[in-house]
Amino acid sequence: MLARRELFPNILEMNYQFRQRMGCSVYVVHDAGEWALIDIGFEDSTDEIIDAIRQMDFALSQCRYLICTHADVDHIQGMKRAKELMPQARLVAHPHARLLMEKADRIETYAEISAQGISIDLSPIPVDESIDEGDVLTVGNLKLKVWSTPGHANGQLAFEMGPYLFSGDNIYRDGGVGNIDAHHGSDLVEFIKSLERIRDSKIEWLLPSHGPVFRKQSAHIQKTIDRLKSYLNLADFGTCATGWPLLQEWEEELIHGFDPTQA
Ligand SMILES: [Zn+2]
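Above: query sequence and zinc ion SMILES. Below: predicted holo structure tokens.
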């Protein structure tokens, strides 16, 4: 029997539970004997995580949901194995994440980053149910409200449970955000909207998918929003930008000719 190290009432996180960094955050929410997992990480740690959950006296047969925040390989590769161990649990994901998981898309999931020599196994993972904005998942007496928070990935979800938001890769404690990358389906305009929604919400605690949990503070999120807004008009993230004012400036200069005294 393993002692449960709860972060908050009814919430455990497995890196905190193991007191060592395993991979992405793996949250367990539980009530009245039922429980659910939010993300699982890579397949090679799945058995160890689920065995530890069992040793904390959770019945595997009482797992209601296997929940995916989004389809990135480092969050969901182990979901196939988790479903084998707990066939009664409903594997749920956003419709776009479901598409990527069921066809084992190698690009949008980051299984393949050929320019960096990254190539990770990814089997097709059948999803039981699509979930999206406004849906509610029930675990015991707990209610997880589904938020659609695109930006990092098309199809990223967050989950509101009272004062807590399981916030995926929207924002981390250092103010960083999930990778912005056109090939990953990132969208800067949507990303900013997702962050504004989190900023303006009554959420008190953010439980991200990487790194430590932290208290939601508007000024902290605003700083990140301002940074992302600046990228809308810069070339830093290529086709994720909405415009590049420098090109209009250049056009003016081309018409009038280059003048070193004005440069
Ligand atoms: Zn991630």
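The helical segments are 14-18, 46-55, 73-76, 79-85, 95-102, 188-200, 218-231, 245-256.
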